[in-house]
Amino acid sequence: MELRDLSDHVEYRAGRGIEEVARELGRDPSDFVKLSSNENPHGPSPKAAVAIREAATEVHRYPKAVHADLTAALAEQWGVTDEQVWLANGGDGALDYLARATLDPDDEVLVPTPGFTYYGMSARFHHGRVSEYAVEEGGDGFEMTPEAVLDAYDGERVVYLTSPHNPTGARFTLDEVETVADETDEDTLVVVDEAYGEFADAPSAVSLLDERDDVAVLRTFSKAYGLAGTRLGYAVVPGSWGDAYARVQTPFAASVVACEAGLAALGDDEHVAKTTESVEWGREYIHDELDARTYESHGNFVLANVGDAASVTEAAKRDGVLIRDCTSFGLPEHVRVTVGTRAETDRAVDTLNEVLGE
Questions:
Q1: Domain end residue (candidates: 248, 266, 284)
Q2: Global confidence as pTM
Q3: Aminotransferase class I/classII large domain: from which residue to which, for each copy (predicted)?
Q4: Does position 12 have pLDDT exceeding 70, yes or no?
Q5: In a domain, 6, yes or no
Q6: 122-134: string of b/e by CB count within 10 Å (b at 16+)?
Q7: b/e burial code for range 173-182 (CB count within 10 A of at least 16 → b)
């Protein structure tokens, strides 16, 4: 037999890990600093780490109770009903659930370019089609505007807004999100991806759900909470969607370990504060000290124009600093530097300045 036609599908390529690069270069992993995947440099929430260890003895049980407990805790945090919180295996899992709930075959979605490739991947997995709107560099940097979205909009079923946006760090205001929702068809869902929302000094689009049924919000535990390896994310959806989650989710959408970690992390305000304060310092430091043009960022990373991203990334790798070559985003002159610890960020800036000066 033959597989279905996968010619329109693309591979999601995550940043390479330290161990992988160390093996390639025949060096010790401790020689490297990884600032290429927007991970939390301070590790997981300490409270979550304890919960993960304690959960190890319960992994023979299905996660029904703790799944409900985490759902209720998130609903309370956001001031929504339990039914509006859709837990998932990472933010990408939540995207799949939204696609299952909204897309009929050949429905179109509108995604940003550059942007997170999984928006389009998920749509295609569910037999949808993909259109794009451009996030372009202007005089003041990369711009996220309702006009750019609406100029490209042609009745798509789902419109994705990444705020803050990866890899540029730009964001939409709540008024701008509402403008997009107001100006698109009543059957168009506006998905606001707030994976980096904890790092932005701005209110969440969840507040719009009090009066709208055409907006959904994506959140994750991977970044500020430091739980990328547990794969835990969720969507907050309109209140009218009721029992749709039960119809589209996989059985037990998040594991016992992930749910226990998430519950504990939600109560670890100290770790989140440490992380966000570190990011604020690191963004400013990179902007001030890096000998390249940088752009205002509301995420836990900074985009920089270094002229030749591939060669700069390769040279930095040889010096033990892993950053993201943004050529795969369609930005061959740019690199993305995740904010690390103070020592890691300082080393990355020094290394890049040396490379750029050669």
A1: 266
A2: 0.94
A3: 31-352
A4: no
A5: no
A6: bbbbbebbbbebe
A7: eeebbbbbbe
